[in-house]
């Protein structure tokens, strides 16, 4: 997907390509991710989506300053929307040790966030064209991508509110 960064015109072009990319893609919900806190255990996106309106997938890494700055907002959103049919997954792009360390520091065990690891071949993040982090994908139980972008984009909250209005 091309990326253009010059001014308002560039923003429009980027949004156009992003919407075109999302319309032509469906996430295979049988995709398995490793659970950080239970060595060897895996969970699929279908497992997470079951009985929910969407899966909120937050891609992050411990070396990413903006990712770490966004963690309090991730925790706040999980607290606000988890009981409204949105399931949250923090997907680490590093390794189990880095994810476990951050999980302990942020007390993720006390939240409603599934703490997961991307596969070694980066299949999910590559499929979603995650070229920079933090990045969030909001995925319907059918695999349809409902929203994809930076977690600070106000359009994400708009989409969450639309999904949970009913």
Set down the secondary structure blueprint.
Blueprint: H1 7-23, E1 32-35, E2 42-44, H2 45-49, E3 54-60, H3 65-81, E4 86-92, H4 96-105, E5 113-117, H5 123-127, E6 135-139, E7 145-149, H6 154-164
Parallel strand pairs: 3-4, 4-5
Antiparallel strand pairs: 1-2, 1-5, 3-6, 6-7
N- to C-terminal distance: 34 Å
The mean pLDDT is: 87
Please give the count of helices: 6
What profile does the largest beta sheet have? 7 strands, mixed
Tell me the helix content.
25-40%
Tell me the name of the CATH homologous superfamily: Glutaredoxin
Given this structure, which CATH class is correct?
Alpha Beta
Q: How does CATH name the architecture?
A: 3-Layer(aba) Sandwich
Protein name: TlpA family protein disulfide reductase
Domain Thioredoxin: 21-166
InterPro entries: Redoxin, Thioredoxin-like_sf, Thioredoxin_domain, Thioredoxin_ResA/DsbE_sf
GO molecular function, one term: oxidoreductase activity
Keyphrases for this structure?
6 helices; 166 residues; single chain; Thioredoxin_ResA/DsbE_sf; seven-stranded mixed beta sheet; alpha/beta; Glutaredoxin
Task: Explain the overall architecture.
There is one protein chain. This protein is of the alpha/beta class and 166 residues long. It has a single domain, classed as Glutaredoxin, CATH 3.40.30.10. It contains six helices and seven strands. It has a seven-stranded mixed β-sheet. A hairpin with a 6-residue loop joins strand 1 and strand 2. It is globular and about 40 Å long. The N and C termini lie far apart (34 Å). The mean pLDDT is 87.
């Amino acid at each position: 997907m091309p990326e253009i960064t010059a001014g308002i015109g560039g923003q429009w072009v980027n949004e156009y390509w992003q919407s075109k990319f999302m319309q032509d893609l469906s996430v295979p919900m049988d995709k398995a991710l490793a659970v950080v806190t239970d060595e060897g255990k895996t969970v699929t996106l279908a497992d997470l989506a079951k009985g929910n309106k969407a899966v909120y997938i937050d891609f992050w890494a411990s070396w990413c300053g903006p990712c770490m700055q966004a963690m309090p907002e991730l925790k706040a959103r999980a607290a606000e929307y988890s009981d409204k049919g949105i399931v949250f997954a923090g997907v680490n792009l590093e390794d189990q040790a880095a994810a476990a360390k951050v999980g302990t520091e942020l007390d993720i065990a006390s939240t409603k966030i599934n703490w997961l690891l991307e596969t070694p071949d980066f299949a999910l993040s590559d499929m979603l064209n995650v070229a920079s982090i933090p990045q969030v994908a909001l995925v319907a139980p059918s695999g349809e991508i409902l929203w994809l972008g930076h977690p600070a984009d106000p359009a994400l909250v708009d989409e969450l509110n639309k999904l949970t209005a009913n």
